[in-house]
Amino acid sequence: MSDRIVRAAAVQIAPDLTSRAGTIERVLNAIAEAADKGAQLIVFPETFVPYYPYFSFVLPPIQQGPEHLRLYEEAVVVPSAETQAVADAAKKRGVVVVLGVNERDKGSLFNAQLIFDADGSLVLKRRKITPTYHERMIWGQGDGAGLKVVDTKVGRVGALACWEHYNPLARYALMSQHEEIHVGHFPGSLVGPIFAEQIEVTMRHHALEAGAFVVNSTGWLSEEQINTVTEDPKLQKGLRDGCMTCIISPEGRHVVPPLTEGEGILIADLDMRLITKRKRMMDSVGHYARPELLHLVHDTRPAQPVRCIEDMQDLSGTPEAEAEDV
Predict the structure, then answer these.
(1) What is the end-to-end Cα distance of the chain in Å, rounded?
(2) Contacts of residue 291, Cβ cutoff 8 Å, sequence gap at least 6
């Protein structure tokens, strides 16, 4: 049984809606502030850099072109000077950082989660497997290669973004890799109060089912920022509330009171002994599983639009070769 104590920080702050550089500066300042408070793990909201595409939730498609193009210009390339700045901060302070970004990969954008270990190395870059509703006009889809739990200085960490948590098989893929700390990302300042309620239920349920700690971060928009997204008072209602930055124990309880409005940083100590305490009773991927009845098939191959075949030996394992075998 591990007797480790991990101090975690969940950050709820506003991005800079005007520039990637401005948001990166806020990220670096928050890392320093949380590290000064002893944090060993620091979590930021969904696609925090440069900002979540709030415009896509309230503007009709025909009006989104200029803002979508601007998001392309401000999005993050991985690796880049921006990711290196975060890596350097993680290394300098000896902390693990989980950051949501809009990733630009040539002609496409993706909702990406980056995990930097305490030595500054980027140990995971994963992409949201299914963008939700309005987001499908903004981002491409991720693949099974990103459903991965990684070893870090604070333990085994897995991550999902927003409504990926409503895909039970995606969650089970991470649970089966024995994540100790699960990181959740949501945009915040979206939908309304019901969104915060749904996030809380979802995060508490995953903690119970996974037997893991959950550190979840949502973003925040000021009234001034909301006015820059849309001046329509009716549409502005969809850009308020919906914040539930929280830290949950494997027993499904808030370790500290959640942050549901305004800016701030939650700090909590995670007693890793609670993982075994929970799993002794119910290990959903161990003694409580019934693999002879139900099991998950997880395709971990990266999805590629082009595959170059050098010779006939490279055909092995392809659908064509499997069809010939039959």
Answers:
(1) 48
(2) none
pLDDT digits (tens, 9 = 90+) for 87-108: 999 999 999 999 999 999 999 9
Place of tokens 């055909």: 315
Query: Is residue 88 within a helix (H) or strand (E), and if so which, with residue range?
Result: helix 81-93
Tokens for 324, please give them: 């010939």
Name the catalytic one among 125, 128, 148, 279: 128
Examine the residue annotation and report whether 308 is marked as an active-site residue of this protein.
no
Residue closest to 69 by CA, chosen among 21, 102, 113, 27 = 102
Residue 261's contacts (CB-CB under 8 Å, 6 or more residues apart) are 220, 241, 243
- The residue length of the chain stands at 326
Distance separating alpha carbons of residues 103 and 78, to the nearest angstrom: 7
User: Is 46 designated active site?
Assistant: yes
304 Rama class: left (phi>0) / alpha (psi -120 to 50) / beta: beta
Instruction: List the domain boundaries for the chain.
Output: 5-281
CATH 3.60.110.10 fits 5-281, yes or no: yes
**Residues 8 and 41: beta-carbon distance below 8 Å:** yes
DSSP 3-state assignment of 239? helix
Active-site entry in 74, 103, 125, 162: 162
174-233 pLDDT per residue, tens: 999 999 999 999 999 999 999 999 999 999 999 999 999 999 999 999 999 999 999 999
Our answer to whether residue 162 is catalytic in this structure is: yes
**Predicted pLDDT at 311:** 63
Look up residue 34 and give its two tokens.
């949380």
Tokens linked to 189: 């300042």
Sheet holding 108-116, edge to edge: 122-127, 108-116, 96-105, 41-43, 5-12, 264-271
Q: Among all chains, which residue has been given the structure tokens 């909201």?
A: 45
